[in-house]
Known about the structure:
By secondary structure, this protein is mainly β. The protein has no helices and 9 strands.
Amino acid sequence: MSNIFDTATRDWENVRPDVAQGVFGKTLYDDKVKVVLTRLVPGGKFVPHRDKYGHLLIFQSGEGFARVGDQRVDARAGVVVRVMPGEEHEYGNTGNHELVLISLNIPA
Length: 108
């Protein structure tokens, strides 16, 4: 992967169809930490699930929600959500436009 690239040159791929619907991503970096530009169509979501790795979710635009354990927050530009390895979590798009975020998958 080049050090400089235009995200428009990357294809959108289905993200985790085992636990998500209407979620697409473009991998920006994948060396220990994985960085994905992620978009959820209206109604798109991750169902409650647990991963062996952690996440840092950095919401860029749109409207939605994120839940980690018992904590739930409105997802919008500027909101950052930290998920520890093994924590139950979910997020989804509740708006009429795409929900866009940067997702970092962080090894345990």
